[in-house]
Design goal:
This protein is of the alpha/beta class and 338 residues long. The chain has nine helices and 16 strands.
């Protein structure tokens, strides 16, 4: 294979999800039950690509994966890199791939490819996509050209940067897209084609003993007055992300609640559009991006709401000091570009 280490060693780590789901009973839906060995054994061609080791790390629907799980997983990956593994593939449910992969991207300080994949169609269906996705993911994990790109998501033969990828459809095989950047590459026959590269992402180092505190993701909608914001501190939240209109705008009746909240905890402003970035000084009305930033709110830049929440959560876990937390978040945010 072009660009591949000779007989690369690739570690496959299973977290559960649709790719590992089978029927629990004759009349029930599917649940994650297949092990990492089961997944690898179902794709004999993997052994022609690399030497494979498989680990069943968790067995969960992806909505149940926690930040604690991902911190522990990051340490496992770093340990295996130290032992000489050339690449890692993580299989999980697709519902939270965009958040889980970005979490790993921030936590991991490794040069080997770390590739997250999954499936939209479970193995009991007539045309499951899991085996093909796993094969392509292993090819990418084994490729020299995929080194130094941070955490990647490989689905439907496309290679995405974890920092930009989004799930855009509830069931389509082409659900994963990177609207802010486009794909980094693709897999065709036996070749991994990388056509764009990312700058290294800033990392946040966490131990498994570090406390991960809750961060609220608050949507913005027509006519919203922000009354829920006043309850966040009482409910135990240590940070908040406002998923605002357009370039970072909210109804004027939310402004007072947001300003008050920003005196209690870090508040990040993101755009609910999912592409582009929060502006800084274009609009000047009450509730505009410049108005909110002048009131102590932090710009999420090109991070969407979910990924802003990931970055803020990890920054809060790494530091109890408000200034340091903000600095860590901004460091990650500003390292996003190519």
């Amino acid at each position: 294979m072009t660009g591949q280490v000779q007989r690369a060693k690739v570690l496959v780590i299973s977290l559960g999800g649709t790719i590992a789901s089978t029927s629990a009973s004759a009349d029930g839906g599917v649940v994650p039950q297949l092990s990492a060995d089961d997944l690898v054994g179902a794709v004999p061609d993997l052994r022609t690509v690399a030497d494979i080791e498989a680990i069943s790390f968790r067995q969960l629907p992806s909505g149940d994966i926690s930040f604690g799980d991902l911190v522990a997983l990051a340490h496992v990956i770093e340990d295996y890199e130290a032992q000489g593994v050339n690449g890692v593939v993580v299989t999980q449910g697709t519902d939270t791939i965009e958040e889980a992969s970005f979490t790993l991207d921030i936590l991991l300080d490794v040069s080997i490819p770390v590739v997250v994949t999954g499936a939209m169609r479970h193995p009991t269906l007539a045309s499951p996509d899991g085996p093909g996705n796993l094969l392509s993911a292993v090819k990418v994990a084994a490729a020299i050209s995929a080194r130094g790109l941070g955490c990647l998501v490989v689905m439907n033969d496309e290679v995405h940067a974890a920092r930009f990828v989004r799930k855009m459809h509830s069931s389509s095989l082409s659900t994963f897209q990177s609207p802010g950047s486009g794909v980094l590459g693709w897999v065709a026959e036996e070749r991994v084609r990388i056509v764009a590269r990312c700058a290294p992402l800033a990392t946040v180092n966490l131990d498994e003993s570090d406390v991960v505190s809750p961060v609220a993701l608050v949507g913005c909608a027509l006519g919203d007055d922000g009354r829920t914001l006043g309850e966040l501190q009482r409910l135990g939240y240590r940070g908040a992300v406002i998923d605002a209109f357009g370039a970072g705008h909210v109804p004027s009746m939310m402004v007072g609640a947001i300003e008050s909240l920003a005196t209690m905890m870090p508040v990040v402003l993101s755009s609910r559009t999912g592409a582009g970035e929060v502006l800084e000084h274009t609009y000047g009305f009450a509730g505009s991006e410049s108005d909110l930033l002048s009131r102590g709110v932090i710009s999420g830049g090109a991070l969407d709401g979910r990924k802003s929440r990931v970055a803020l959560t990890l920054a809060l876990a790494a530091s109890r000091d408000a200034k340091n937390t903000t600095a860590l978040f901004v460091k990650v945010r500003d390292s996003l570009s190519y």
